[in-house]
Design a protein that fits this description.
The complex is a heterodimer of chains A (360) and B (285). With 360 residues, chain A is mostly helical. Chain A has helices at 13-16, 23-43, 46-72, 80-97, 103-122, 130-150, 182-205, 207-217, 219-224, 229-256, 266-279, 284-307, 314-335, 340-353; strands at residues 163-164, 168-170, 173-176, 258-259. In chain B, a hairpin with a 2-residue loop joins β4 and β5 (96-97). Chain B has 285 residues and is α/β, with parallel strands linked by helices. Chain B has two domains: 1-110 and 202-209 and 234-285, P-loop containing nucleotide triphosphate hydrolases (Rossmann fold, 3-Layer(aba) Sandwich), CATH 3.40.50.300; 116-200, Rossmann fold (3-Layer(aba) Sandwich). Classes of the chains: A mainly alpha (360), B alpha/beta (285). At the A-B interface, α7, α8 and α9 of A face α4, α5, α6 and α7 of B.
């Protein structure tokens, strides 16, 4: 009823090709950005920001990275956790080697290391596809984990084997390290994630994004249209790993504060893959929905007993929330195997014609 | 001069076959020749898919390749495309002998192709599918694409305009934004033709463009092929099983059987060729 494009005529190709051609969508996105940039920092508690919003944004960015590879370019990867690790360790090394370099530059540079490693482990994709490719990316996961443990140089030979985030300033404010407030960290992360998502959306709707989708849908035809499979697949690996690497660097520098190899293990690869599948492969909005579903929902569920002063043990609540999440995953995948984003799109389509569904 | 091309009006293409008729004039023929296949042999292990076939495709003509199932027609297209590499023989394209090449190199040299089984990008809309045919024409690099401003945006819109012309030409404006996976088969074939057209090819290979269509759809498709040939001057090589379509559309026909060429000439010549009749109808024992 409220979601109608009636009367919104497009008279140029430019208007028709806009990222959000429907005015209501543009207003909706503006509202979300307003809430994220203004309302949450002003109103939300430190707990909400540091243990819900910051991890949510980190995982959403990693999911965007994996979705580019899996949902858009059609190459399965189980190495997401390790690629995040490469970004994090690269960021740590760069930050300690060049202490004067602006930390944001360091974060963006560290993504390139992840991209390089991603390209190397993407090479098998030229020969093998699908699940078999997923197995070869497992090699990346195990090999890189091994590197994070065995190569002391990566964590500056710390006795603990962990990387600890040094304090860095931006505009006179501490944005990393123990003294950075959750709100500053949140705002920095939010800005980076927002910009990088916009960039991803731009690439995906242009020639390069289309070439990835061509390879995904029909590689033989893609090759006949002049797409070089080598270049296309490896560029998808590079682009995707860059995003994962930056997400890993953000995770350590702006959320955890210190990290060991466990933060980048295969469970994280799976976690992010689930976010992409639940959220919707081939949809950027789906990455955020998936991250919210997998990360935010359990935290909220676990907070319910204390909020309503119910007498349930924390451990019991942990189990109950796992059960609920598991059931919801099954429910959503039955209702719409293409993920929450598709569900959302179908809902919007229905809303357009409501209450006259036969009007189209 | 009575070529079947006359059936579709006095388009410029009807004058082209005149060159074929004057095949005795060697000079003219060499000038007009777009692609020539000489003594090509392709084997898979012990199976000879194509043995010692030679034929040529002249600029601006509609060339049909026909033959019973398993005659090696699709293999021939795959050789021209660069998917298969023949063990023997020579292919020259635009007067130059071609080295062993990859399909994307064939694409950038101006050869486009549709498939026997529709090979569209099923996850993308009609518009995006046809836009994907413009990939080679778009030049802006990653940085511009990331920003999606200025030149990258202008480029995208210029190509969108070209694609819209193709959409108008093929009369598929109503399915512009629909995902192609859900379209009926006849329309999918049409979108695939549009995608190949978007590459602005010099040589368009159509692998059974009318397979599985009803009469009306076949008539539509024939019209598009003839218009495409006459309006844009695109040279077309098509494989087709419907003899009526082949006889009406093609300027010249090459007939394959068991990987060998058994006839080559105008539809009328081929039709009365005893080898062809034997291949299709069998030989009395």
């Amino acid at each position: 009823m409220f979601y109608r494009e009636a009367g919104q005529f497009k008279t140029t190709y430019e208007a028709d090709q806009a990222m959000l051609p429907i005015a209501q969508d543009r207003v909706g996105l503006l509202l979300i950005l307003l809430i994220a940039f203004a309302a949450i920092p002003l109103l939300a508690s430190d707990f909400f920001i540091s243990s819900i919003m910051i991890p949510f944004l980190v995982f959403a960015l990693a999911a965007v990275g994996l979705n580019i590879l899996m949902g858009y370019a059609g190459q399965l990867s189980l190495g997401t956790g390790a690629f995040m690790g490469v970004g994090a360790y690269a960021c740590y090394k760069l930050a300690t080697l060049f202490p004067d370099l602006n930390i944001l530059i360091v974060v963006f540079l560290s993504g390139f290391f992840a991209a390089g490693i991603g390209v190397i482990f993407g090479l098998p994709s030229l020969r093998i596809k699908g699940l078999y490719l997923a197995i070869t990316t497992l090699a990346a996961q195990f090999f890189l984990e091994w590197c994070f443990i065995r190569i002391g140089w990566l964590y500056n030979y710390n006795d603990s084997g962990a990387i600890e985030v040094p304090q860095r300033m931006l505009f006179g404010l501490a944005i990393t390290g123990p003294h950075a407030t959750p709100i500053t960290r949140y705002l920095v992360i939010l800005t980076i994630v927002a910009i990088m998502t916009l960039v991803a959306a731009n690439v995906l709707r242009g020639r390069i994004g289309r070439s990835w989708m061509m390879i995904r849908d029909m590689d033989i035809a893609a090759e006949l249209m002049g797409i070089r499979p080598l270049f296309s697949k490896l560029s998808a690996f590079a682009f995707s790993s860059y995003y994962c690497g930056v997400a890993g660097a953000l995770m350590v520098f702006f959320w955890l504060g210190s990290a060991e190899v466990e933060s980048f293990d295969i469970n994280h690869s799976f976690l992010i893959m689930f976010m992409v599948i639940i959220g919707g492969m081939g949809s950027l909005a789906g990455c955020f929905m998936g991250a919210a579903f997998i990360w935010v929902l359990p935290v909220i569920l676990r907070a319910i007993p204390s909020a309503f002063e119910l007498n349930i043990l924390a451990a019991t609540m942990e189990h109950i929330s796992s059960i609920i999440i598991g059931a919801l995953i099954i429910f959503f995948l039955i209702v719409e195997p293409h993920g929450l984003a598709r569900l959302w799109r179908v809902g919007k389509e229905k809303l357009r014609t409501w209450p006259f569904p036969y009007a189209t | 001069m009575s070529t079947p091309a006359n059936a579709h009006g006095d388009s410029p293409a009807t004058t082209e076959p005149g060159v074929v008729a004057a095949a005795g004039d060697n000079e003219a023929q060499r000038r007009e020749q777009l692609l020539s296949v000489e003594n090509v042999t392709l084997t898979f292990g012990g199976v000879k898919a194509i043995s010692d076939i030679s034929f040529n495709i002249l600029k601006g003509e509609i060339r049909a390749i026909i033959g019973p199932n398993g005659a090696g027609k699709t293999s021939m297209l795959n050789v021209i495309n660069g998917f298969y590499h023949p063990q023997k023989g020579r292919i020259s394209y635009k007067g130059k002998t071609r080295k062993r090449m990859k399909p994307y190199q064939a694409a950038s040299s101006g050869i486009a192709r549709t498939f026997q089984n529709v090979a569209l990008f099923s996850g993308m809309s009609t518009l995006d599918n046809i836009m994907s045919g413009r990939s080679l024409k778009m030049k802006r690099g990653l940085i511009w694409q990331m920003l999606h401003v200025g030149p990258a945006r202008r480029e995208e819109i210029a190509h969108r305009e070209h694609v819209e012309h193709i959409i108008d030409f093929l009369e598929i404006a109503h399915i512009r934004k629909q995902p192609v996976g859900k379209l009926p088969y006849g329309l999918q074939k049409r979108v695939e033709l549009g995608r190949a057209m978007a590459m602005e090819p010099e040589l368009l290979l159509l692998d059974e463009p009318m397979a599985g269509m009803n009469l009306e759809e076949k008539e539509d498709m024939s019209r598009f092929i003839l218009d495409l040939n006459s309006e844009f001057g695109t040279t077309i090589a098509l494989i087709e099983h419907d003899m009526g379509v082949v006889m009406d559309l093609a300027d010249r026909v090459v007939v394959l059987d068991y990987g060998q060429k058994i006839a080559d000439g105008t539809p009328a010549e081929v039709q009365s060729n005893q080898n062809v009749i034997d291949a299709y109808l069998g030989v009395a024992h």
